[in-house]
Design brief:
Layout lengths: L1 H40 L6 H11 L4 H26 L5 H39 L2 H7 L4 H38 L5 H11 L2 H27 L6 H34 L5
Helix pairs in contact: 1-6, 1-8, 2-6, 3-4, 3-6, 4-6, 4-7, 4-8, 4-9, 6-8, 8-9
Length: 273
């Protein structure tokens, strides 16, 4: 009986710890979003220059890897899917399959994963290092809210830039698929474009951008929260960064699963195509 009691206590403590972390993350994200919006009106929340720096870091410097990865993903999808479709029907249908899958799911999810690995990890490492170096405490001593000063510009830049990066990823993937389909599998340009128009709707594109904005919020809040939670030595910075990326990846995939159900419900009631 004592073993069972100890097990129940252990499980309860673990659940309580996770719920506390979830509550802290939600409160942290709410404060970050509030300060980000207030910063658009008042320049005393964070310097506008910091926001521009974060836009450059999260957006401009992430564009090449997004375009390259998207191009390779599009080519790979067509190269692997076309032979299979050719056995059961017209291989031209690959244009529609790739268009819908990239715009609705693969583009937003893969772009978010790349964004988490490149930008999110940087957020955690930067803020964790500042926390260990007591720079965050120095801001508090000067009467400056560290969430507003440090997190808000990162939050706003990420929410604005990840959808833009997703557009770059989607465009590169569609172009890569088009090139392989036309020049490697001899699909005519007219057929490829016509099939794409028949299968792909604007709702696929807009829903993918909505996903990207949601993923940007998740990545920024989780990574910044983990950075602010660092305590002890610099070794904890690396551990917090690893935990942040793992949590981001799992949460992104789970959120995509939930949003897929939402999209199916909207389709059922003819609210989207």
């Amino acid at each position: 009986m004592s073993i069972m009691n100890e097990s129940v206590v252990t499980v309860g403590a673990l659940v309580n710890k996770q719920l506390s972390a979830l509550g802290g993350t939600v409160r942290f994200g709410g404060n970050a979003a509030l300060y980000a919006l207030r910063g658009l009106i008042s320049r005393r929340i964070y310097p506008f220059h910091d926001f521009i720096v974060q836009v450059d870091y999260t957006g401009a410097r992430s564009t090449p890897i997004m375009i390259l990865t998207g191009f390779l993903v599009g080519m790979t999808l067509v190269a692997q899917t076309t032979p299979t479709l050719g056995r059961y029907g017209p291989q031209e249908l690959v244009a529609g399959v790739v268009g819908v899958s990239v715009l609705r799911t693969l583009g937003p999810v893969l772009a978010a994963i790349i964004f988490a690995g490149r930008v999110g990890a940087g957020f955690t490492a930067e803020l964790g290092t500042m926390k260990v170096g007591e720079e965050v405490q120095a801001l508090e001593t000067m009467g400056i809210d560290p969430i507003g000063y440090l997190v808000a510009p990162r939050f706003l830049a990420a929410v604005l830039m990840l959808p833009c990066l997703t557009i770059c990823f989607d465009a590169a993937a569609l172009i890569g698929g088009f090139i392989i389909g036309v020049y490697n599998f001899n699909i005519s340009i007219e057929d490829y474009l016509d099939i794409t128009k028949q299968f792909v709707f604007i709702s696929n594109f807009t829903f993918g951008l909505f996903k990207s904005a949601v993923f940007a919020v998740i990545i920024t809040v989780v990574c910044c929260y983990k950075g602010f939670s660092v305590q002890g030595s610099a070794m904890e910075v690396g551990r917090a960064t690893m935990q942040a990326i793992v949590v981001c990846l799992v949460t992104i995939i789970f959120t995509d699963f939930v949003l897929a159900f939402v999209y199916n419900i909207l389709q059922k009631y003819d609210l989207v195509q």
